[in-house]
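Appendix C reproduces, verbatim, an entry submitted by the partner laboratory led by Prof. M.T., so that reviewers can inspect both the input and the predicted structure.
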Amino acid sequence: MLKKAILVSATVLMGGIAAFVLYMLRDPRPRFEERRSSLASVVESEPVIDGASSFQDVTLTATSGLQVPLNVRRQLADSGRTLPGVVILGGHVTGATAARLVGEAPGIAVAAMSYPFTGNPKPGTATFLREIPKIRGAFLDTPPALMLVMDYLYRRDDVDTTRIEAVGVSLGAPFVTIAGALDTRFTRVWALHGSGGSYAPLEASMRRTIGFGPLRAVAATIANVLISGPRLAPEKWAAQIAPRPFVMANATDDERLPRESVEALFAGAAEPKELIWMSGRHIHADAETIQRLVGIVKARVVGAETTAD
């Protein structure tokens, strides 16, 4: 009798776990559409002049309640001109400050977006669990947030809406890939120091904090489900970017991204696509690596009429 009760309990438990996993890994597209909705309000600060550039803070609010902070940078010398646009999504800490990190970008309107995350950006071990719903929400809200930024840029008279590119750096690369797949208004999509997969990059990242392999594998598996990782794996979306160009730039000695995950993202994309290898390690907000990447993107954007194919 006891064995039967244990068996029944185990069956119910396993069924409950399976149902929970299926629920967490449901199709995110309806959520994307619902959260993207439409622009309800745009709040723009007065531009701030710093050196040769103008910086403007902008807060977008969708009818769904989704809020997106960004910073728009233009060179003063470009005043009165309609410029190609670049939407940048960097690491979770960088956010809208990426507009300043890229340096001067003559001939380009730069819009750097922050993640739509309202929790603690650096939760401790004791507070991490209560932040999980907000972390999951931010992961699912980021692709629609990028599309909302595009809605905003389409309203600006100083942005050439036929030439707006999406640039994802590090953590931002998967989200930009998804947004680029869903929103055909992005004319080219960049994944810089990004990769495919969801479990493998998580597991590799956790090596810095969880030294015991089996425990790390369990933690990465659970985290992967909680953030809907398998659904957001960018290699499953990348092919939808075609026939628009998809460009990757990666470090040969990247200690955070497994080489096979980088190659999986490139393999998942359709032509036209390009993978640029650069020496060095993963980008860590170091000026030299940033400027190398910025140089690659700038050259293509400014000369888009001759390199888009």
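The two ends are 70 Å apart (CA to CA). Additional entries are available on request from the coordinating office.
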